[in-house]
Design goal:
313 residues; alpha+beta; Thrombin, subunit H; Pdz3 Domain; 3 domains; 6-stranded antiparallel barrel; 6 helices; 20 strands
Length: 313
């Protein structure tokens, strides 16, 4: 018997992921104000066995609940537990039994060119499945909540087509592990997904526990920049973060950080991207001393900053 062709193997993988995840991705009908049922705004992924589901913050908006519909024809009312516009993640909880939860993977392990499958459940298109590859990593997605602006770092870009209503659905690897939550169409034939990584897990946990994410901030606008050769050899990495601007009277400015400084480390950890700082800017950093090492005029300088809480929108 002839061996299966690569196309047969590809088809088996996609079909297997679809079979595994389609029952675990719900279509959400979000209830608008005054009890009026709105149109389906997206999808959600079953996260725990006791009814928690993951979706996008922009899917639920300011609503308090709605109805989740599953591919087996069952439905459940849900309430919005918490939404975080600055990461575009939200957690909702179903009031009735749900399918088994999806298995989460790790977006940090993805490589460009890797096969991924997008599974969504737009109303009327239950079990919408598309496949493609990771076309880019390390993208940034600007988000806003009131006056607060933030970049969701390391967003996954894929050429797996996203149907309208796929927002909040699963982006999975070949083993049906969810590595991202689909969030936006980036252009013709391109989609973006919020990665499942250590940062997003922390956000999800905070939403489940308290319904919101408390963040610290330093008030730094930065951009990656090469380190001089002597410092590269000393610290074993090529880049730091140049301070392009500072929030007047913000925590960083009060600590003595200056425009033009190059951030090398914070809390003893390397700083090479904006996400390296963002990983530290959660509730446990608010009001606590944070040691930062910067390169200034050819010398390393240690400063102590005290992050403040980012005001809610």
């Amino acid at each position: 018997m002839a061996a299966d062709s690569p196309l047969d193997a590809y088809s088996r993988i996609v079909a297997g992921v679809a079979a595994e995840l389609t029952p675990k991705v719900a279509s959400l009908r979000v209830t608008q104000g005054r009890g009026r049922a709105g149109e389906s705004l997206g999808s959600a992924v079953v996260y725990t066995g006791d009814g928690f589901l993951l979706t996008n913050a922009h899917v639920v908006g300011r609503a308090s609940g709605g109805t989740a519909l599953f591919s087996d024809g069952t439905s459940s009312p849900f309430t919005v537990v918490g939404a975080d516009p600055l990461s575009d993640l939200a957690v909702v909880r179903a009031g009735a039994a749900t399918p088994e939860p999806a298995v989460l993977g790790e977006a940090e392990d993805l490589v460009v060119g890797q096969l991924v499958v997008a599974v969504g459940s737009p109303l009327g298109l239950a079990g919408s499945v598309t496949a493609g590859v990771v076309s880019a990593l390390g993208r940034s997605l600007p988000t806003r909540s009131g006056s607060a602006v933030r970049l969701v770092e390391d967003v996954i870009q894929t050429d797996a087509s996203l149907n309208p209503g796929n927002s909040g659905g699963a982006l999975a690897d070949s083993r049906a592990r969810v590595v991202g939550i689909n969030t936006a169409v980036a252009g013709i034939g391109l989609g973006l997904a919020v990665p499942i990584n250590s940062t997003s897990r922390k956000i999800i946990s905070a939403l489940m526990q308290s319904g919101r994410v408390r963040r610290a901030y330093l008030g730094i606008v930065s951009a990656p920049t090469p380190l001089p050769a002597w410092l590269h050899e000393r610290v074993g990495r090529k880049e730091g973060l140049r301070v392009a601007d500072l929030v007047p009277d913000g925590p960083a400015a009060r600590a003595g950080i200056r425009t033009g400084d190059i951030l090398v480390s914070a809390a003893g950890k390397p700083v090479t991207t904006a996400q390296d700082l963002q990983r530290l800017m959660f509730a446990d950093a608010i009001g606590r001393p944070l040691e930062i090492t910067v390169l200034r005029n050819g010398a390393l300088v240690d400063v102590i900053a005290q992050p403040s809480e980012l005001a809610a929108a």
